[in-house]
């Protein structure tokens, strides 16, 4: 995408003038990595946990906080756990926009249903989905301590991105 220097709207590559304000565009202003814009409507009372660095925009009815997931140290190759952005709707519906790297797939888990996700592929989850580290018994080559995956247990939605861009965490 090409970002307009005047109104900051995103335009398709190859476009010579901004579709929003008409200003001339320069191909050198191409700003985005491959990815997908994810639009998530949230109903009153919903809570959504989102991987850090994925949040773009939220409507005014959505409140923000963060949550620390303890015990996921191994998923991040060190640190004190994993922090996630938490978005909550109060009395009105809301809309949340996220950026997912690559393609974004959503899976809705039934109560008690489990899936394993490579930690870099995790994008978002309903707060009703439990997440914990699961060590796989793979001990060859560089993986001398085994491989860790994020075990997600339903009920609720899980968003998975197909490309992994590493962001360091505490």
Structure description:
It is a single chain. The strands form 4 sheets. The chain has a 6-stranded antiparallel beta sheet, with no helix packed on it. A 3-stranded antiparallel beta sheet has the order 3-8-5, with no helix packed on it. Strands 10-13-12 form a 3-stranded antiparallel beta sheet, with no helix packed on it. With 170 residues, the chain is an all-beta fold. The radius of gyration is 18 Å and the shape is globular. The chain folds into 2 domains: 1-32; 33-161, Mitochondrial biogenesis AIM24 (Double-stranded beta-helix), CATH 3.60.160. β1 (2-3) and β2 form a beta hairpin. It has strands spanning 2-3, 10-11, 35-42, 47-51, 55-58, 62-69, 82-89, 94-101, 104-109, 114-117, 122-126, 130-136, 147-153, 156-161. The protein has no helices and 14 strands.
Task: Characterize this entry briefly.
The chain contains no helices and 14 strands. With 170 residues, it is mostly beta strands.
């Amino acid at each position: 995408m090409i970002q307009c220097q005047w109104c900051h709207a995103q335009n398709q590559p190859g476009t010579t003038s901004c579709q929003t304000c008409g200003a001339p565009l320069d191909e050198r202003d191409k700003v985005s990595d491959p990815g997908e814009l994810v639009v998530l409507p949230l109903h009153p009372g919903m809570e959504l946990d989102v991987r850090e660095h994925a949040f773009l925009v939220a409507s005014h009815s959505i409140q923000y906080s963060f949550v620390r997931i303890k015990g996921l140290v191994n998923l991040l190759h060190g640190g004190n756990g994993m922090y996630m952005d938490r978005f909550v709707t109060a009395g009105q519906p809301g809309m949340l926009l996220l950026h997912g790297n690559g393609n974004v797939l959503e899976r809705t888990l039934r109560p008690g249903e489990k899936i394993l996700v490579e930690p870099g592929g995790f994008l978002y989850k309903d707060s009703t989905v439990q997440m914990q580290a699961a060590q796989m018994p793979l001990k060859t080559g560089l993986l001398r301590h085994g491989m860790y995956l994020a075990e997600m247990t339903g009920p609720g939605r899980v968003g998975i991105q197909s490309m992994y861009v590493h962001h360091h965490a505490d």
